[in-house]
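Predict structure. Chain length: 445.
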Amino acid sequence: MKPEDSVGPAVAGTRTDQSPPLAAVVVAAHRPARRQKVSRRYIYLVTLAQFGVFVAFITPLAISLSIRVSILAPGHEEYLGYITGIGATTALITGPFLGIASDRTKSRIGRRRPYMIVGLLVGLLSLFVMALAPSVAILGMGWVLAQLGWGQVLVNLQFSTADRLPEEQRGRVAGLAGFATQIAPVLGVTMAGIFSGNALLLFVVPGVLGLVLVLLFVCLVHEADTRDAEFTDHLTPTVLLKKFVFNPVQHPDYSLVWLSRFLFYFGLTLNTTFASFFFAYKLGLSVTEVTSVIASVSILGIVATTAGAIGGGFFSDRLKMRRVFVLLAGVFFAAGAIIMTASSELPGLILGSLVVSVGIGMFSAVDQALLLDVLPERDTDAGRFMSIANFAIAIPQAVAPLVAPALLAVGMTEAGEKNYMLLYLLAGALVLLAGLVVLRIRSVR
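Prediction complete.
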């Protein structure tokens, strides 16, 4: 084990992968500690772990659920919206409880890792449930388990970055994580193309990769023992409910980041949930047949996502500017959505998808860094405020898939052709508005 990875307080002037000792950060009258730079080892491991979670977790959302719905309920793609909406609602309700619990967990292995371990077990179970589901209802139950399991692994990895990262590394790490989590579905969709004929392998193979990469982080990145942690308030039902909300007047910049996230992910969810059906409609193919096409398009999107995520994250650190990059992400996304809706051939769909990928990658990186820059009460309630920020992701994921079928039905032809143009143009407009909102932030450039 390297000295920089050992358990214990950091020595001034050295790098450390350790969270601040809990006993030092939970007292009421402390000042936020200046965070020291983390090692490259930590950066690589947290990036790989998030990549693994997204391979396991987003593959079903990107393609596997679509394939299973088309088999279990042919001609009823609206069921996909209901399944993903219910799963996101579950995450919305449970997220803050689990975030607060993570902040206050006392264990020998720290406060974040126990949730990653349990989340892995639940997440793997969910994949088997979805793969073997005999009905749409059971498939939906499996997705709820996936939200609870893989979702907890992911948010606690993010809590870890809030605990450890100094300002000068946030954009860089968020850029790498954003790149990893955006290319993960590419690998997942490629796997789906290979295993589309075997429901069990379709879900479980991505899950095994996620398991291995998360276990590397859990085993090699250590946290301080939190069994002696002390807290200044008792977690009564009233106190707990109060922790679900925050005062926008006290935290205006955090509120603006929350709103920007909400708008972006509402647009993104509208854009991605029905992507398989959109490509099938545009190209005149079945959902199963379009899997290989989506895989090819997604592979080409790696370059665009890399440019957006890593470029946006690194340059936002170097230039000490976040807002302009969030706005630029919205512009790219909206332009790409327009190109896709106007195209009826594969080249135009590819071009639009690449432009959208630049916007997604850039936003995912810079938004995460911006959130960490404005996060209130970082040392004592990072899990709480990041969970509330995740409301801005969970609410759109819950609501947008339920709204999308109504948008698709607007002006639907007698032949059953759905209004994908309206869906994608609205998605682009919402994302562009998300970029404009952050221009009102005052504490960060």
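Summary: The chain has 15 helices and no strands.
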